[in-house]
Amino acid sequence: MTPNPSSPPAVPPLEPGHRLSRAEFERRYEAMHDLKKAELIEGVVYMPSPVRLRRHGDPHVRMISWIGVYAAHSPVVVPGDNTTARLDLDNEPQPDGMLLIDPRFGCQAVINENDSVEKAPEWVGEISASSASFDLHTKKAVYRRNGVREYVVWPVLDKQLDWFASRAGQFESLKADAAGILKSEVFPGLWLDSAALIAGDMLRVLAVVQDGVHSPEHAAFTARR
Question: How far apart (Å, rounded) are the C-alpha atoms in residues 215 and 209?
Answer without folding.
Answer: 10
